[in-house]
Amino acid sequence: MMEEEEFEFAEDLEAILHLTPEVQLAIEQVFPSQDPLDRADFNAVEYINTLFPTEQSLANIDDVVNKIRLKIRRLDDNIRTVVRGQTNVGQDGRQVKEITRDIKQLDHAKRHLTTSITTLNHLHMLAGGVDSLEAMTRKRQYGEVANLLQGVVNVLEHFHKYMGIPQIRQLSERVKAAQSELGTQILADFEEAFPSQGSKRPGGPSNVLRDACQVANVLDPRIKQEIIKKFIRQHLSEYLVLFQENQDVAWLDKIDRRYAWIKRQLLDYEEKYGRMFPEEWCMTERIAVEFCHITRAELAKVMRTRAKEIEVKLLLFAIQRTTNFEGLLAKRFTGCTLTDIPGVRKRPDSPLDPTNPFLEDEAGEEAGTEKDEDLTKKPKAPDNPFHGIVSKCFEPHLYVYIESQDKNLGELIDRFVADFRAQGPPKAGTEEGGAVLPSCADLFVYYKKCMVQCSQLSTGEPMIALTTIFQKFLREYAWKILSGNLPKSSTNSGGLTISSLLKEKEVSEAAKFTVDELCLICSILSTAEYCLATTQQLEEKLKEKVDKVLVERINLTGEMDTFSTVISNSIQLLVQDLDAACDPALTAMSKMPWQSVEHVGDQSPYVTSIIMHIKQNVPIIRDNLASTRKYFTQFCIKFTNSFIPKFINHLFRCKPISMVGAEQVSFIYCNLY
């Protein structure tokens, strides 16, 4: 029975202790053993066969069984020892845990004790500080109060979580009351030293007020703002009286006096009050900025009242003086007190091109005087945060400037027309022949001057209005100067006979345009090309100058299309002229009685006439379009596309025709090709 029970127990134990291959491998690495009983794939039958390989060996079965039982008892003893050892380890662990808990309790006690001592020290400092603060406030000892108040406020921050304690809450209320009293008291002191009524300043800088400013830095920011506001208002009160709207010095022609006055006031402030206010308050800049705001409002008011008296020269004078003053502010101050900094124009970084006024340096230097590498080494002008702080008031009145430019450009176009009529078209064989008209460059140089000047005045709606003016006169230039001066085409190809084709004089008369007219067409074409390219550059520059929200409203595509039309019309005139010059020869060829031709000649008069016209016109056009080779190529292509179908059409009209006549026509065709 015992053997059966042991066998069942072994089976149950084997089922429970079934280990994964990974765990079994780890055990073998930690406890290596050669005993078959320790193998994971132990087989009882193989093991018994190993112990009893023959029947005779069964005689020792009792000894083998006793050895195995002895081994089992030893294993049981080892297991029991290990289990008891683990029991002792648990007891040791509990003892260590209790020691650790005691240490933690001691640490907490130490921390709490330290916190209590620190809090008591802070409480002592707070109570003493509040008493001293109240006493110093009554005595106006602002120098001592400034440092003490900051310390009291810092200490009070440690007691935020203890505000439920009545004594702490009471101390906090006393601090707030002291701060409120200090604020009221300091404002009263400044009001007494710098009264708001009247322009006379009976008081002046003092150590008391200087220390009071240090206290204001610790108080509510509204106290500091109120001090600054009252002082600046009182400091600029004289300005409002001297430059009232009804005063003669308030008008634009005496705007320099405004800026001279503030310069004197700033020097006076720095000499008398520079050390009274803390440096981080930037009082000098604040005075200048407030002066700018007042000046902007006053100028806007007086210009609205006397709008009819504003002239262009007067407006530009006032704007120039104002922008100079804004530049002076940028050199003197950083703009740290500004709350609304206007947008600053950025200079383009495009390379310079002396042939285009819109790619020239805007710094006022002559084009071509410096190399590109020298220009890149020039330091970039810093942005001006004060740009527009006063000059913005002139923007509603820039329509006067725009209207003036409209008038000036109209007069300029009329002068161009008059000069062209007086001087006549460019002559063949001269430098002007086929070159860009000088008036074109003059127009765009004036455009650039207007654009730069207007962008310095405003980058908003006035720039859009100026763009509209530019568009208007670009179209007028295209119509009056370019298209209006293109030679008129006329047809004079009838009445020519074979005999007339042999006379050079009548052959030359067949071309309807003279050499000077051909030069004029080429010159207009070159000018239109220059205008097209420069108008594109003008559009890009206008978009750089104008505010970003207005960029989409800058569009000169219609004007560029107008110049493209002038180019196409010019090329078409050149093609029509040469095409029409060849028409008499083609017409005479189609009217010849080809059935009566008896001999094939080496040179046909029709071919001679056509080649003569081509040799006469094409070199002139080629030389005059030397700067615009692509348009000369277009001319050649368009003439070829027009002449060849017409020539083939006239060949089909040569009927009736004999065999000899057909050979002659074929010879003509080959000669032309």
Report the C-alpha radius of gyration, rounded: 52 Å
Helix content: 55-70%
Distance between the termini: 129 Å
Oligomer: single chain
Largest sheet: none
Biased composition (Basic and acidic residues): 368-381
Region (Disordered): 344-383
Organism: Oreochromis aureus (Israeli tilapia)
GO cellular component, one term: GARP complex
Layout of strands and helices, then pairs:
Elements: H1 2-16, H2 21-30, H3 44-51, H4 61-139, H5 142-157, H6 166-193, H7 207-218, H8 221-235, H9 237-242, H10 255-272, H11 283-305, H12 312-332, H13 372-376, H14 399-423, H15 438-457, H16 461-482, H17 498-501, H18 504-509, H19 515-545, H20 557-591, H21 605-624, H22 629-652, H23 659-672
